[in-house]
C-alpha cells in the first residue's frame, strides 16, 4: 500500500507522503538557526503523520471528509511526543512543536486551548470536550496504522523516526499522557529562554512549516530572487535625473548625498536609522537607495521591504522604482524576481523567465514575498510581526535579514506606537533586520534610530513653501462656505475634511454656488476605480487650471498633488502638516497658505472629534491657538512639541496589553490576544457591497457568480484570482444601516445597474442620508 500526501484528482502529479515530509523539511531547514534545526526537522517530518491512515487515503480518492480522515490533531500529538523523546521536559520546544503542527492548516491558538486544564491526577473530565472527541478519533486512527505497519514502518525508518513511531502506536494512553506532559510544560512555564525569545522561535518554526507545506503541496517552482546592485542602479538614477537645475532639485540631490554619506559612516553603529526631511524632498528615492547601499555595506544580498500606510501610495512608489529598474538588462521577463507589490488591491501575477505561473502559484509566491524588493502596506508588515493568521505568517521568515523601509510611520494609530516600537526593536535583534524610518513628522517612536539627515532642522528652515494659518474659532459649514466664497482667489484649492458627510456637504454647497470653475470630490465614498481615475484627472488639471478639490484624509500621505491653497479642518498636527505637503509642493509659487478651521456640526461638535477623539483634538487646538501663523521652517519644532504632549496624555494600554500577550504567547484567549491585533479596526457596523456600475462591472460580477458552480477548490481559486482586482475596484465599505438598499441573494450584497442610478453618483459616490454620522475616510 502506498501513502500519498495530497489529492491525485486535484493534482497532475502523484507525491508520496514520505517524499512530501522530506520536501517540507528540506525547503525551510536553511532558514532555521542551527540550535533549532532539530526542532524544525521533527516538526516537518511529523506534521502530516495522521495521513498514514486508510481513512485519509480514502478521502484522497473520494474527496469526502469524515472525522477519521482529519489528520491535524494526531499529527500534532505525535510531533509533541517525538520532541519530548529528544528534548525531555526541560524545554518549551515540544510544546511549540505541538502547537505549530496543530494549527498548520488554520490560525494559531493559545497552547491551553487544546490541552487538559491541569497536569496532576488528570482524568477525562479535565480535557475540553472538543479535545476528548479528537482523542477518541486518534485511537481509531492508531488502530488503523497498526494494521498497516508493514507498509508504514519503512517510511519512518527512512525518516529516522521508526523508534518514536513504534513506541507511539504501541503505548497505552499515549495521547492523554503526551498532552498531560505538554500541559505541565505550559503550566510550569518551563522556559529556559527570555519570554520574547519563545514568541520569535514559535513564529519562526510555524512560518517555516506552513510556507514549505504550501509550496510542496502545490508543487510550485521557487524562482531565485534577484538583488539589485547599488552602483549599477545609481548610475541609472544619475543618468535619468541628470544635473539638477531647479533649486528644489538641487536640495533633493544634497539631501540624497548627505543621507548616503552618513549611512556609510554609521551603518555598523545601529540596526535602526531614520531620515527626517520635509515633504517633497525625494524621500522615496533617497530611502530606497539608502536601503540598497546598506545591503552593499553589510556585505550580502538583503531583501528590501518598502512599507507604506496606504495602497494608493504603494502604486505610486512602486511605479517610481520600476521606472529605474526597467533600465536593467534582464528586468523584462523577470520583473517579479526583482520587485513585487503586495496589498489587497494588487493584481496577482508573477513574471519570471523560468515559467508562466498560474494565478494560484503567483499568489503563493507573492504572499511568501519571493522577490528582492517588496513594496507593501503597514498592515502586511506589522500583522506579520504581531500575528496569529496563517496567511500572514507564511512570510514571517521572509523578513529575516531584510532591510525594512517604513515610510510615513506617523500614520500608525498613536495607541500602537509603543507596541510597534517594541516589536521592531525585538525583530531587529532576533531576525537581524535593519530598519529605516522616513517621515516629515517623526513621531515618538524608535527614538534610538541613527538620524541619517543630520542637522535636518536646517532643511526645514530652508523651506518657505507654506505657512499654517490657524483660524480655530468654531465655525459651521454654512459660515465656512460663506467665508470661502468671499475670500476665493484665482488659485487652486484643496479642502481636507475629517468625515465623509462633512466633505459631501461642503462639496454640494460649493457646487451650488456656480463658481465657474471645476470642483472635484475625493473620498472612500467613491469606488476604488473612480478614485484612481479622479487622482489622475486632478493631477492633469492642476497643470493648467485653478480647480477646487474637496477631500477627506485620503490625500494626506504620499499623494503627489500640488495646490496653491490648502484648507484643513482641525485635526492632529501631524495630519495637518501632511496636508500642507500638498500645497506649493514644488516651490513653484510664493508661499502657499494652509488655513486651519475648526468646523462643527449642528450639535456644535467638531467633525474631527468623531475620527480622532477629544485628546488629540484638544492638544492640537491648545498648540495652534498660540500662533497667528507658522512658517514651514517651524514645522519641525511644532511637530516635536505636539508628539511630546501626545505621549504625556495618550494612554498606551493597548500597546502594553499586546506586548504582554506576545511575551505570554497568548494567541487567542485574552481580550488583547495576538489574534485580535489589527492596524485597521474591523467595524462590525459595516458591510462590503458590490456596485454594478457599468458593462465591465456587470461582466466581472457574472464571472464572480459563476465561481459557485466550480467544485474543484484549486480551479475555483484560480478563476477568482483572475478577477480579484476587478471585483475590488467596484466594492465599497458602508454602514450596515444601508444594507436593505442592496440585493442579498448572490452571496455578496450588490447593487444592480438600475439601483446604481438612484444610489450612486459618479462625482460624489454613494448617496447617504443627510443625518449620517458614520465616519469613514
UniProtKB/TrEMBL annotation:
Stored Gene3D superfamilies: 1.10.3210.30, P-loop containing nucleotide triphosphate hydrolases
Domain Helicase ATP-binding: 264-460
InterPro entries on file: Cas3-like_dom, CRISPR-assoc_Cas3_HD, CRISPR-assoc_Cas3_HD_sf, DEAD/DEAH_box_helicase_dom, DEAD_box_RNA_helicases, Helicase_ATP-bd, Helicase_C-like, Helicase_Cas3_CRISPR-ass_core
Domain HD Cas3-type: 10-215
Endpoints of the signal sequence: none
Origin superkingdom: Bacteria
Record has Metal-binding as a keyword: yes
Any one Gene Ontology molecular-function term assigned to this protein's record: metal ion binding
One Pfam family named in its UniProt record: Cas3-like_C_2
Record PROSITE patterns: HD_CAS3, HELICASE_ATP_BIND_1, HELICASE_CTER
Alphabetical keyword list: Antiviral defense, ATP-binding, Helicase, Hydrolase, Metal-binding, Nuclease, Nucleotide-binding
Residue intervals of the Helicase C-terminal domain: 476-632
Similarity field: In the N-terminal section; belongs to the CRISPR-associated nuclease Cas3-HD family.
Entry-linked PANTHER family: CRISPR-ASSOCIATED ENDONUCLEASE_HELICASE CAS3 (PTHR47963:SF9), DEAD-BOX ATP-DEPENDENT RNA HELICASE 47, MITOCHONDRIAL (PTHR47963)
Stated name of the protein: CRISPR-associated helicase Cas3
Annotated source species: Aceticella autotrophica
Amino acid at each position: 500500500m502506498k501513502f500519498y500526501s495530497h489529492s491525485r484528482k486535484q493534482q497532475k502529479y502523484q507525491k508520496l507522503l514520505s517524499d512530501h515530509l522530506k520536501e517540507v523539511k528540506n525547503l525551510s531547514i536553511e532558514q532555521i538557526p542551527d540550535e533549532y534545526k532539530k526542532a524544525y526537522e521533527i516538526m516537518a517530518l511529523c506534521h502530516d503523520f495522521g495521513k498514514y491512515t486508510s481513512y485519509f487515503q480514502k478521502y484522497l480518492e473520494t474527496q469526502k471528509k469524515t472525522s477519521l480522515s482529519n489528520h491535524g490533531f494526531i499529527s500534532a500529538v505525535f510531533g509533541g511526543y517525538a520532541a519530548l523523546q529528544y528534548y525531555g521536559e526541560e524545554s518549551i520546544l515540544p510544546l511549540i512543536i505541538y502547537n505549530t503542527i496543530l494549527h498548520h492548516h488554520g490560525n494559531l491558538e493559545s497552547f491551553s486551548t487544546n490541552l487538559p486544564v491541569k497536569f496532576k491526577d488528570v482524568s477525562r473530565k479535565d480535557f475540553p470536550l472538543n479535545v476528548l472527541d479528537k482523542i477518541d478519533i486518534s485511537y481509531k486512527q492508531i488502530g488503523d496504522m497498526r494494521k498497516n505497519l508493514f507498509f508504514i514502518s519503512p517510511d519512518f525508518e527512512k525518516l529516522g523516526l521508526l523508534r518514536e513511531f513504534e513506541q507511539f502506536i504501541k503505548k497505552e494512553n499515549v495521547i492523554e499522557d503526551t498532552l498531560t506532559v505538554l500541559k505541565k510544560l505550559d503550566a510550569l512555564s518551563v522556559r529556559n529562554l527570555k519570554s520574547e525569545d519563545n514568541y520569535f522561535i514559535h513564529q519562526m518554526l510555524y512560518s517555516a512549516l506552513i510556507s514549505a507545506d504550501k509550496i510542496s503541496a502545490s508543487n510550485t517552482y521557487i524562482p531565485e530572487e534577484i538583488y539589485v546592485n547599488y552602483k549599477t542602479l545609481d548610475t541609472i538614477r544619475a543618468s535619468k535625473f541628470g544635473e539638477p537645475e531647479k533649486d528644489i532639485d538641487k536640495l533633493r540631490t544634497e539631501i540624497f548625498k548627505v543621507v548616503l554619506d552618513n549611512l556609510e559612516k554609521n551603518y555598523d553603529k545601529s540596526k535602526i536609522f531614520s531620515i527626517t526631511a520635509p515633504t517633497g524632498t525625494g524621500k522615496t528615492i533617497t530611502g530606497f537607495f539608502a536601503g540598497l547601499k546598506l545591503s552593499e555595506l553589510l556585505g550580502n544580498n538583503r531583501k528590501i521591504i518598502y512599507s507604506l500606510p496606504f495602497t494608493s501610495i504603494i502604486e505610486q512608489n512602486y511605479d517610481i522604482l520600476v521606472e529605474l529598474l526597467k533600465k536593467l538588462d534582464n528586468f523584462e521577463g523577470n520583473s517579479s524576481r526583482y520587485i513585487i507589490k503586495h496589498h489587497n488591491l494588487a493584481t496577482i501575477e508573477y513574471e519570471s523567465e523560468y515559467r508562466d505561473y498560474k494565478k494560484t502559484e503567483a499568489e503563493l509566491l507573492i504572499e511568501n514575498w519571493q522577490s528582492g524588493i517588496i513594496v507593501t502596506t503597514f498592515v502586511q508588515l506589522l500583522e506579520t510581526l504581531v500575528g496569529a493568521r496563517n496567511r500572514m505568517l507564511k512570510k514571517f521568515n521572509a523578513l529575516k535579514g531584510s532591510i525594512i523601509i517604513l515610510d510615513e510611520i506617523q500614520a500608525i494609530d498613536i495607541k500602537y506606537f509603543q507596541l510597534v516600537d517594541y516589536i521592531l526593536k525585538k525583530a531587529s535583534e532576533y531576525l537581524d533586520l535593519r530598519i529605516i524610518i522616513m517621515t516629515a513628522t517623526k513621531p515618538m517612536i524608535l527614538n534610538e534610530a541613527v538620524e541619517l539627515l543630520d542637522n535636518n532642522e536646517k532643511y526645514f528652515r530652508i523651506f518657505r513653501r507654506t505657512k499654517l494659518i490657524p483660524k480655530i474659532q468654531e465655525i459651521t459649514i454654512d459660515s465656512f462656505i460663506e467665508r470661502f466664497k468671499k475670500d476665493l482667489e484665482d488659485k487652486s484649492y484643496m479642502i481636507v475634511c475629517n468625515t465623509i458627510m462633512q466633505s459631501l456637504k461642503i462639496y454640494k454647497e460649493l457646487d451650488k454656488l456656480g463658481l465657474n470653475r471645476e470642483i472635484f470630490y475625493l473620498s472612500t465614498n467613491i469606488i476604488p476605480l473612480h478614485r484612481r481615475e479622479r487622482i489622475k484627472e486632478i493631477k492633469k488639471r492642476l497643470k493648467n487650471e485653478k480647480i477646487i478639490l474637496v477631500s477627506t484624509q485620503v490625500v494626506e500621505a504620499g499623494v503627489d498633488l500640488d495646490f496653491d491653497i490648502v484648507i484643513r479642518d482641525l485635526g492632529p498636527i501631524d495630519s495637518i502638516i501632511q496636508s500642507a505637503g500638498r500645497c506649493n509642493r514644488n516651490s513653484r509659487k510664493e508661499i502657499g497658505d494652509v488655513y486651519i478651521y475648526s468646523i462643527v456640526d449642528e450639535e456644535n461638535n467638531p467633525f474631527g472629534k468623531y475620527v480622532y477623539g477629544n485628546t488629540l483634538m484638544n492638544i492640537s487646538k491648545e498648540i495652534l491657538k498660540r500662533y497667528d501663523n507658522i512658517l514651514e521652517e517651524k514645522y519641525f519644532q511644532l511637530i516635536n512639541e505636539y508628539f511630546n504632549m501626545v505621549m504625556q496624555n495618550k494612554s498606551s494600554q493597548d500597546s502594553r496589553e499586546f506586548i504582554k500577550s506576545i511575551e505570554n504567547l497568548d494567541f487567542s484567549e485574552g481580550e488583547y490576544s495576538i489574534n485580535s491585533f489589527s492596524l485597521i479596526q474591523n467595524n462590525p457596523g459595516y458591510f462590503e457591497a458590490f456596485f454594478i456600475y457599468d458593462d465591465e462591472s456587470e461582466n466581472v460580477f457574472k464571472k464572480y457568480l459563476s465561481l459557485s458552480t466550480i467544485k474543484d477548490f484549486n480551479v475555483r481559486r484560480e478563476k477568482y484570482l483572475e478577477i480579484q482586482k476587478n471585483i475590488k475596484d467596484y466594492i465599497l465599505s458602508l454602514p450596515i444601516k444601508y444594507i436593505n438598499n442592496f440585493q442579498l441573494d448572490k452571496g455578496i450584497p450588490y447593487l444592480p445597474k438600475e439601483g446604481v442610478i438612484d444610489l450612486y453618483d459618479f462625482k460624489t459616490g454613494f448617496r447617504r442620508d443627510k443625518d449620517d454620522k458614520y465616519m469613514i475616510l
